[in-house]
Amino acid sequence: MSVSRLELRKVWVPGSLLIVLLLLATLSLYASAYTVILITSILMYVILTTSWVIFSAPTGYISLATAAFFGVGIYSSAILGTELPLLIVILIGGLASSCLALLVGALTLRLRGIYFTVFTFGLVELIKHLLLWYEIKYTGTRGRFVILVDNNTIYSIMLIILVILLLTAYFIKRSKFGLALRSIGEYEDAAAHIGVNVNVLKTITFAISAAFMGATGAIMATRWTYVDPYIAFKPLFSFMPVLMAIFGGMGQLYGPVLGATIFAYLEEVLITKFPYYYMLTIGLVLLIVIFYLPDGLIGLIQKWREKGLGKQHANP
Asked: What is the H or E stretch that residue 279 is in?
């Protein structure tokens, strides 16, 4: 790659990101109400997927606790939404999820492989049924009504959360912190041997990712009139970020963003037009990706780029 090409890339990438951000920031000025709602749903999945990737991609620990942290944020909004300002509720939702992740991480991140994965999924079910039991026994209800917020406000806050998340993910990846996380994923025992405090590092990263999930749940709850444990702690919220990350590829930061965007839009189209074939189509797409695109869309894009550069070198 020539110097001029490198310089062009340094200008083109930030410029493109700035244009996309400006278009998203002003979306409510020119887009329909349905488009704003659709993009909000896409942003939700992008945040959940990117948050999951912050922890699971470099460490290799497959967490299925996303629904637990997302649901804690939802219930924070349902319980406190009428008592406190919206921004305070969102911060509490993120903080509550982060504290839960710190506790769970400190207790369970010594587990490895399938044991950690099964435990995190069991955590979702445990919280869901414990909360359901508490509500039925002590409040005589099953669920709560949520204070409603207009769609433009929800969209704007969701976009702010996404920007903060992407900046956080970028700086983690480029820092010594991120390097230590990748060393854990490559060979955890060796990382511990050279002085990396693997348990503390994993727990802190787990808590950071959970904070964004909880904050997202707190603001998304205001889109729904009513929530209950089955809605808030739906297992789909744990599995979809994993599938979206695999679909997009986890080699680059924009991989999960791309995968979540396409997958979330595909979900909306299939549920709207082909509700009976929704899960079948999603399953087929995933099988194709796993068999033919093991590195996701990012791997495919990189192969195309390498072929293009190869042709340029062959025909100067």
From this structure: helix 278-292
H or E segment and range at residue 227:
strand 226-227
Residue 110 DSSP class: T
Judge whether 260 and 267 are in contact, CB under 8 Å. no
Helices (H), 82-233: 86-108, 114-134, 151-174, 176-186, 188-193, 198-220, 229-232
The verdict on 220 and 150 lying in the same domain is yes
Q: For residue 263, tell me if it sits in a domain.
A: yes
Asked if 175 and 207 sit in the same domain, the reply is: yes
13-26 per-position pLDDT tens digit: 566 778 888 888 88
As a whole number of angstroms, the distance between CA 245 and CA 261 comes to 10
* Domain of residue 304, residue span: 253-316
Q: Say what the pTM is.
A: 0.89
> Could you tell me if residue 162 is inside a domain?
yes
Q: Are 128 and 206 in contact (CB under 8 A)?
A: no
**Strand (E) or helix (H) holding 315:** none
Query: Do 111 and 83 belong to one domain?
Result: yes
3-state helix, strand, coil in the chain (%, to 5): 80, 0, 15
Question: Looking at the 3D structure of the chain, how many domains does it have?
Answer: 2
Classify residue 29 as exposed, middle or buried by CB count within 10 Å of its CB (0-12, 13-18, 19+). exposed
Same domain, 139 and 175: yes
The pLDDT score that the predictor gives to residue 127 is 92
State the sign of the Cα–Cα–Cα–Cα dihedral 86, 90, 91, 97: positive
Please say whether the beta carbons of 282 and 267 come within 8 A.
yes
pLDDT digits (tens, 9 = 90+) for 65-91: 999 999 999 999 999 988 889 999 999
Judged on CB neighbours under 10 Å (0-12, 13-18, 19+), 62 is middle
